[in-house]
Design goal:
CATH architecture: Alpha-Beta Barrel
Largest sheet: 8 strands, antiparallel
CATH superfamily: Regulatory factor, effector binding domain
CATH class: Alpha Beta
Structural class: alpha+beta
Order of helices and strands: EEHEEEEHEE
Radius of gyration: 15 Å
Distance between the termini: 23 Å
Shape: globular
């Protein structure tokens, strides 16, 4: 797994947030959230401008519960509605890797990035991003590509 330090460029995105969720409920929350966001983008007549992302934050020590922001980069601002709002994806220095495989095994990428951070004395912010490069609707599970991004200070 190739790990590198990058400077992430921001993109405007429409997003929604789910608070105090656990891994048992994450798949349902992601499916519901992205379906809602996609419909809102379409209603507004906007175009998707990059891969959807999931930002994990405010996790407890064992990461059994956390907040998640689901976002989709767009080409132009959309009107906020209900729990959907405009935001910007992460900008700044980060440790990143491209993970190939099923989402259920992505923990290996997280462990590799945490080990890299420890070995290189990189201070993590405690916020983690998954950018879903491949569409699971038309990509075999073992071919899915996800960019995992760990912002650093």
């Amino acid at each position: 797994m190739k790990i590198e330090v990058t400077n992430q460029q921001p993109q405007i995105a429409v997003a929604t947030k789910v608070e105090a969720i656990n891994m048992d409920k994450i798949v349902e929350a992601i499916d519901t959230g992205y379906t809602k966001l996609m419909a809102h983008i379409e209603e507004q007549g906007k175009q998707i401008a990059g891969p959807p992302y999931c930002c994990y934050m405010n996790g407890n020590e064992d990461f059994s519960q956390f907040d998640v922001e689901l976002g989709i980069p767009v080409n132009d601002a959309v009107i906020s509605k209900d729990d959907m709002y405009m935001t910007q994806s992460f900008e700044g220095k980060a440790i990143t890797t491209i993970y190939k495989g099923p989402y259920k095994a992505i923990e290996a990428a997280y462990v590799a990035l945490m080990d890299y951070a420890k070995e290189n004395a990189a201070e993590l912010t405690g916020v983690y991003y998954d950018y879903y490069i491949s569409d699971p609707a038309d990509t075999p599970e073992d071919e899915l590509l996800t960019q995992v991004v760990f912002p650093i200070k």
